[in-house]
Amino acid sequence: MIRFEKVTKAYPGHPHPALDNISVDVEKGEFVFLVGSSGSGKSTFLRLVLREYRPSSGRVYVAGKEINRLASWKVPRLRRDIGTVFQDFRLLPNKTVTENVAFALQVIGKSRKEIKDLVPETLEMVGLSGKGDRMPDELSGGEQQRVAVARAFVNRPMILIADEPTGNLDPTTSVGIMKLLDRINRTGTTVVMATHDSGIVDQMRKRVIELENGHVVRDQAQGVYGHQN
Amino acid sequence: MQLRYVYSELGQGLRRNLSMHLAVVLTLFVSLTLVGIGVLFNQQASKAADHWGNQLQITVYLCRTNDSSAVCPNAVTDAQKTEISQVVQDNPEVDDFHFESSEQALDKARELYGDELFSGDNPAITAEDMPQTIWITLQDPEQYEGITSAVQGLDGVSKVRDMREQVAPILESINMLQWVALGTAGFLVFAALLLVANTIRLAAFARRKEIGIMRLVGASTLYIALPFLLEALVTALIGVALAVGALWGFMYFGIAELSQNRLKFVPWIGWDEFWLAAGAVAILGPLLTLLPTLVLTRKYLKV
């Protein structure tokens, strides 16, 4: 589903590349944690998947497409196959929960009928049924992140990318979000999650890819956060 | 694509940035009006030049029957005309020349003063009242004395008129007005472009969160840029409408009034020329806002 072949990404003005000749293969339906300290290359990895950047060298395949060669005008279509969740939720403050989730469908041209069916169904799945008319600032952090997950998943993408989704949440709430991501993963969606949260990684026992200074230093099938000697 | 969303975004965008949009509309209004006036003056200048001849021309009036001039006992004969044209043709100062018959002169006069004087059973002016003329184009506008004196004494020549003295100041002022209008318009067009650029920057900044989300969920570039383009189009259309209105006022209260009641000797521009200027303004206005919007949305809203 996601394949990096000898990918290097260097930013202009930086002496060391953010990613240095890494090769990674993520299968369809996998759940992968991306761990490593700040500046290790996690965000660059995710941005390459989203085709916000092109690699300096090497090849990146996402959902069967080689994205180096993907024309700019085809990028929006690629992103419809990828849901994204961030640490800071990124909800529109002047729209209700329902409108926030519906927005993702509106802007890609879904019909009103589809929106009417999909939005309540997804809100129910993330555990927010009955809260569709609330504004984001009336919700707790965990609930806001659930809205963000609903927005990312409402289009049933093949891949869900989560960049520190529990970074702003307390441990109990984080567990709820992780359960939700696990459920989404069980529907067949590939989940890639960058995180600093060792507790969560240790608990979930999923594949762990650890980055350090742009290199893959560990790729473990049922890993934990820290090094295991 | 959901047009409802695009329209509501358009309305929101226009309201949110009302003062900037007003600034764009007003700048466009003034600059487009000046462009239109420049175009009108330009046509006025060429119309006047067509009628009077340009600054290189002098006119030789030939004798007609009952000519008031003392040197004209009779109307010019064909032999005299041949001789005069020979002299004109041989003169090195002459670039080109042509005859204008009495009928052609009458047509010109009719165009200028309207039909009433020339129609009916007993018209006030007929072709016989109009002199035949030779219009001479000079090689060099400074060198006209040779040809003037050569033709002046010939039989059949009533008088030689160097229209440059009367026409040049009028043509010059029209030309100057044209350049003043177009020059000022140039500055204002530049100001309008900068204002449009700033408006888009502000609008993109105000909507950066929505735009970021739109990009993430895979909205197409056109979909993201469309509200901006529509905003640009709406401001342009309002600016164009105001400018065309102002030009209409200029024509109706300025030119039409002048041409009907005063300054009848000048061939004035009419509504054909107005529509041409309005067309130029209607094309230029949207271009002025849409082009920078296209360029800048590509820059600020890149996927």
From TrEMBL, chain A:
One of its GO terms (cellular component) is plasma membrane. GO terms for molecular function: ATP binding; ATP hydrolysis activity; transmembrane transporter activity. Residues 2-228 form the ABC transporter domain. The keyword Transport does not apply. InterPro entries: AAA+_ATPase, ABC_transporter-like_ATP-bd, ABC_transporter-like_CS, ABC_transpr_LolD-like, Cell_div_FtsE, P-loop_NTPase. It is a peripheral membrane protein. Pfam families: ABC_tran (PF00005). Keywords: ATP-binding, Cell cycle, Cell division, Cell membrane, Membrane, Nucleotide-binding. Its main location: membrane. It is found in: Cell membrane. GO terms for biological process: cell division. PROSITE patterns: ABC_TRANSPORTER_1, ABC_TRANSPORTER_2. PANTHER family: CELL DIVISION ATP-BINDING PROTEIN FTSE, IMPORT ATP-BINDING PROTEIN. Homodimer. Forms a membrane-associated complex with FtsX. Belongs to the ABC transporter superfamily. Part of the ABC transporter FtsEX involved in cellular division. Has ATPase activity. This is Cell division ATP-binding protein FtsE.
Automatic annotation (TrEMBL), chain B:
Belongs to the ABC-4 integral membrane protein family. FtsX subfamily. The chain crosses the membrane at residues 21-41, 176-200, 221-254, 274-296. Part of the ABC transporter FtsEX involved in cellular division. It is a multi-pass membrane protein. The keyword Heme does not apply. One of its GO terms (biological process) is cell division. Coiled coil: none annotated. This is Cell division protein FtsX. Forms a membrane-associated complex with FtsE. Residues 185-299 form the ABC3 transporter permease C-terminal domain. Residues 56-160 form the FtsX extracellular domain. The keyword Transmembrane applies. Keywords: Cell cycle, Cell division, Cell membrane, Membrane, Transmembrane, Transmembrane helix. InterPro entries: ABC3_permease_C (IPR003838), FtsX (IPR004513), FtsX_actino (IPR047929), FtsX_ECD (IPR040690). One of its GO terms (cellular component) is plasma membrane. The lineage of its organism: Bacteria, Bacillati, Actinomycetota, Actinomycetes, Propionibacteriales. It is found in: Cell membrane.
